[in-house]
Structure formats: structure tokens, C-alpha cells
Amino acid sequence: MKPKILVVDDELDALEVLGFKLREAGFTPIFATDGLKALAAIRAERPDLVVLDLMLPELDGLEVCKLMRRDPATAGIPVLMLTAKAAEMDRVVGLELGADDYVTKPYSPRELVLRIRKLLKRTKAGDDPGDHLHIGMLEIDIPHHAALVAGKSVTLTATEFNLLALLAKRRGRVQTRERLLQDVWGYETAIDTRTVDTHMRRLREKIGPVADYLETIRGVGYRFKADS
User: Fold this and answer.
1) Helix, strand, or coil (residue 147)
2) What single-letter DSSP state applies at residue 2?
3) Residues of the chain below pLDDT 50
4) Which domains are present in the chain?
5) What is the mean pLDDT of the chain?
């Protein structure tokens, strides 16, 4: 089946252009023009990915993302946010609330489709049967995209999960922010290393009791402690 992409934007021209590009790329686009309709579509359609504008009627994109992440049924759906170029704070807040990636307006529909492909690819990455990590109080079941801390399930976004799994697999080895952007986000060049820091902060908050397994190497990047 073709992946379903929910595009949320109140600009009808933008929806028409992006819808054409998505169909051309082999996706099934669905649309919503305000935040409330977006939430209804997310719950009813369960899209494979949401392209979410921030400036929306009824309910803004940040609130939609927040409500998605609070609901276990929708928390794992990747979110790609559309932000105005000048609104850096909105971008930062969006990442803090759990967005997996962002694109600034005005954007190229072709670039956006490439970002969607990369995000879907990394969401499905690591499906090797039997790939199960058990380190101290932390369990990571890669085929099922599941993480448990002290036996309790932790709800992570696709990007947070992939970041945790990659660091755990490379336990004891320092990973630079640039390398993480390449291997987790799929960026060929280091666009903004603060993206890594934002996701790492959220990841540590969620895994609480084992947050100290993730070590910051000042001025370089991060490492999963070898003696965890």
C-alpha cells in the first residue's frame, strides 16, 4: 500500500501543488486545512507521516503536535513541521514538542518530498529480526520500535527511538553531532546541530532513570556509556 501523508495547511494553492508532487512520488496525500480537522484526520486515517504547518486556524500546529504526542495511539507518527524562516523560536519549540524534522517556508516541493522519504525510511530502519538490546534497566526492541525502562514501556517518537538505538548499538563510542545528523536524520551536510541537542534533551527526559546512560562529550557530541 502507498504510504499516506497528511498535509495540514490553510493555503489551498500549497495543498494542490504538494498533493500533485506526493502523488507523483507514489504517496497517497490526504489534507486538512485547520488544526481541529488535522487531529480528526490523524485519529481516523492513521497516516504514515504528517506534514504540519504551524500557522493554522482553530488550533495551531504546535498544539496539534503536543496533543499527538500525548496520545499513545498517535505518538509514534512522524511529524515534519513547516516553519517561517524568521520564526526560529517556533522551530525550537516544535522540536521540543516532538517534531521529527522541519522545513522552512518558502520551500521547494521537491525538497519536501525528499525529506518525507528520508523520514519514512529512518522510521522503518533497523528491522533486523532478533535485534534486541538489553543494557542495565533499558531494553530496546528494534524490530518492534519499543523501548522499556525498568520493565515499563516508554513512548518515543520515531526519531527519538532511532537516536537511542543507534547510540546503544555504538555503546562506548563517541558520536559527533554531525555524524548523528547524517546517520539518524539522513542529512548529507550538518544543517543545524542544535536539532540533535533538542532531541537528546527530550529523550533524556523520557527515559528518566537511565538518562545518565547517555553522556555528553562537551564540544563534540554524545556517547552511550560503556559501563551502563
Assistant:
1) strand
2) P
3) 126-127, 129-130
4) 4-123 (3.40.50.2300), 132-224 (1.10.10.10)
5) 88
